[in-house]
Amino acid sequence: MLRSDAATGAAKAGLPPLAPERLSGSGDADGWSLRIFGLVDRPQRWTVGQLAELPTVERAIDIHCVTRWSMLDTVWRGVRVADLVARAKPSSAATHVMAHAEYGYTANLPMADATRDESIVAYAYDGAEIEPIHGGPVRLVIPHL
Fold first, then answer.
1. Distance CA 84, CA 53 (A)
2. Cα dihedral across residues 87, 92, 93, 97: positive or negative
3. pLDDT per position as a tens digit, 72-86
């Protein structure tokens, strides 16, 4: 479900606002930031608050775990990965995205998968901030994988 790709931030997209202080831009998730660097012309860095101010989308996604459980129609809010990558102006030699997360978790994805229209860096799940126990303050959501 795409609510708006044209608006800047959730408010301009017609989405209800999130109240947590960590999305304010100043009280941001204990110094957390998202960086895009490597084979790019313009390295980028965003706090959670800065992400929430970028063009925002909301997606309804069915999640199917390899341990044989599913959650249908989960709602995620965030920024399209393709929009973030485009701001960094990747080199034509860049073929993959390596995502580094807390506790040493990594994901290596082909650029074609990471930048599909439905792929987002989510900062909210079902109308609330993403808790650290669930990978917050943000998490990469690649629905087809």
1. 12
2. positive
3. 999 999 999 999 999
